[in-house]
UniProtKB/TrEMBL annotation:
SMART domains: CheW. One of its GO terms (biological process) is chemotaxis. Residues 17-154 form the CheW-like domain. This is Purine-binding chemotaxis protein CheW. InterPro entries: CheW, CheW-like_dom_sf, CheW-lke_dom. One of its GO terms (cellular component) is cytosol. Pfam families: CheW. Gene3D superfamilies: CheA-289, Domain 4, SH3 Domains.
Length: 154
């Protein structure tokens, strides 16, 4: 009988485990579902646009597709920091729209049990995240709300 219970728990855990790409921005670790990640690019020229919010760094032409790029640091209210060799642009697809997010560095793809995620306390909540969790190594990961990314960039 205990085998059935443990098998049931394993199935439940598999249903709530998803793959997330983890990345850093301003010394915070974020996770975004790999279901939304199209690709990761580096060393790409961002063309500035006039009359857009400062966190929209501009646009890129990726194989003929024009994609807006949002700087995560600026969106989080932090000062701009020059891009380095570890800076990446993560291209996301959200509701058939494409957007790039400039991040300090990409870490890895991890299986994360989303059932262990907790709401971020309202006083600490960021506009782009509403859930967080602690990994086995103690790293706190803020889960990116992709819908909020699109709302915040339009």
């Amino acid at each position: 009988m205990s085998d059935t219970t443990s098998t049931g728990n394993l199935e439940e855990e598999q249903q709530t485990t998803s793959r997330f790409l983890t990345f850093t921005s301003d010394n915070l670790v974020f996770g975004v579902s790999t279901d939304n990640v199209i690709e990761i690019i580096t060393n790409y020229m961002i063309r500035p646009l006039p009359m857009v919010p400062d966190y929209i760094r501009g646009i890129i032409n990726l194989r003929g597709q024009i994609i807006p790029v949002m700087d995560m640091r600026l969106k989080l209210g932090k000062p701009f920091m020059e891009y380095t060799a570890s800076t990446c642009i993560i291209i996301l697809e959200i509701d058939s729209l494409h957007i790039g997010i400039a991040v300090d560095s990409v870490l890895q793809v991890q299986n994360i049990n989303t059932a262990l995620a907790s709401p971020i306390p309202i006083e600490n909540r960021q506009e782009l995240t509403n859930l967080m969790l602690s990994l086995e190594d103690g790293t706190v990961v803020l889960l990116l709300d992709c819908e909020a990314v699109i709302r915040g960039s339009l």
